[in-house]
Structure formats: C-alpha cells, structure tokens
Specification:
TMEM258/Ost5; single chain
Length: about 120
C-alpha cells in the first residue's frame, strides 16, 4: 500500500515541476513580447547543440587507471604500515589524515578511470 502512495507522490511532484516549468516559460514569453504560439523558438535546433565530450581522451583511461590505483594502493599500504608500527602515543593525526586522504583521492579517481576504461560510463 505504501508503494502506491509513494508512486502517486512522485507523479504529483513531477506534475508540479512541469507546471512550474510551463508557468516560467509562459511568463518569460509574455515578458519578452513573444507570442505563445512561437514557443518552439526556445528549443535549440539540432545543428546548434554542441555534444558533451570527455576532457580526458579515452586512450588515457587505462594509463590513468593503472597509475592512480597503484599510487592509491601504495598510499594505503603506507597508511597501514604506519598504523601497525607506530605506538598509540607517538601517532600524528595530521599524518594519518594526510595519508588516508591521499590514498582515498587516488583510489577514488583510479576506480573512476577503471570504470570508464571498462565501458561503464558514470
């Protein structure tokens, strides 16, 4: 019973968004003096649309994935070695955060490029 209510709420929310969008376009057209019949002028022509491309060439995906994951795994290993070999009283919070953050950053971007390399476009 809750699924039906949730679906109805989503439909109502979507309809309200569409109504708000139409009201905005109508107000914009009336304010600009454009008749409502020429609303198709707001939609860009297919030749005017510029496709979105990746800022990184696809040929660099494997290189970036391997490099970033390697650096991330080395940073992770360094973090674990530091945690195991240093006593509780001699640890530095700044070093832990820096090493963990560096490992997280490299592993995150390495995973992203690994997914892109395998064809999972996220």
């Amino acid at each position: 019973m809750e699924d039906v209510s949730l679906a109805e709420d989503i439909e109502i929310h979507t309809l309200l968004q569409l109504l708000a969008l139409f009201t905005f376009y109508k107000a914009t057209l009336l304010h600009s003096g454009t008749p409502l019949g020429s609303m198709h002028q707001l939609i860009p022509h297919a030749s005017a649309v510029i496709p979105i491309g990746s800022p990184v060439s696809e040929s660099f995906y494997p290189i970036l994935a391997v490099f970033l994951l390697t650096v991330g795994l080395v940073s992770t290993a360094s973090f674990f070695i530091y945690e195991v070999t240093t006593s509780k009283f001699n640890r530095s919070l700044g070093r832990e955060i820096a090493t963990g953050g560096l490992a997280s950053l490299f592993l995150g971007f390495g995973s992203l490029f690994l997914l892109l390399w395998t064809g999972v476009y996220v």
